[in-house]
Amino acid sequence: MGLGDVLFGRKKLKGAKLDRLFALSTAQVTLEAELGLRPAGAAGVVFKSLSAGEFMRAEQEIDELLGVVAETSGSEVRRRQDSLGYQWLVVRDRDFEDLVTGVHLVAGELVAHGFGEQLLAAIFAFERRDGERPTYLIYGFKRGAFWPFVPTGERQERDNAEELRLKNELQGELPIEEDLSRWLGLFDAPLD
User: Fold this and answer.
1) The whole model's pTM is what?
2) Please, are residues 42 and 191 in contact by the beta-carbon 8 Å criterion?
3) Residue 19: inside a domain
4) How many independent structural domains does the chain possess?
5) String of b and e for 30-65 (b: at least 16 CB within 10 Å)?
């Protein structure tokens, strides 16, 4: 598909794949029991910045969305912006299934309001049993797949060996992104 096809409406860009997010709920036992990863109670949905006109229209809709998600799921939801200007909707909930459901609801509402093409990824924070650095699972909406992200805490570096180990351990539980070049690190995710 070429750019001309997209511009002239002959082909459409891929939409967000939302339902594969729920695989994370079923993988919780493996994450905790076998891998020592306990949900940290925080996740975020990141989407591309909007133009000024789109932002004015979207701002009220996003605020309404935050209220709907908070009321429906019981999760705390707030809007943030990272240092690169990307927009985030951060979901907090101690119950992991509610957290996954809240992220799905946020993404679904963004799609329903016409912002599906702006959806980039969802990130879920985990605490390690050994108390070392945090570990994340990132879900790419366009590809409908997860990948692990383990920052070392040193100048935006990653623990590639640990990420590959987690990939191998989780392949039977989650749809894993096979193309390692797509494993983007979200170092500035404002989940706190």
Assistant:
1) 0.85
2) yes
3) yes
4) 1
5) ebeeebebebbbbbbbbbeebeeeeeeebeeebeeb
CATH number of the domain to which 24 belongs: 3.30.70.1710
Does 66 map to a domain? Answer: yes
- Per-residue pLDDT 10s for the chain (192 aa) are 443 443 344 444 455 677 888 999 999 999 999 999 999 999 999 988 766 566 566 667 777 777 776 777 778 888 888 888 888 989 999 999 999 998 998 888 888 878 888 899 999 999 998 777 789 999 999 999 999 999 997 788 999 999 999 999 999 999 999 999 999 999 989 997
| DSSP structure class, residue 174 | S
| Helix H or strand E encompassing 62 | helix 52-73
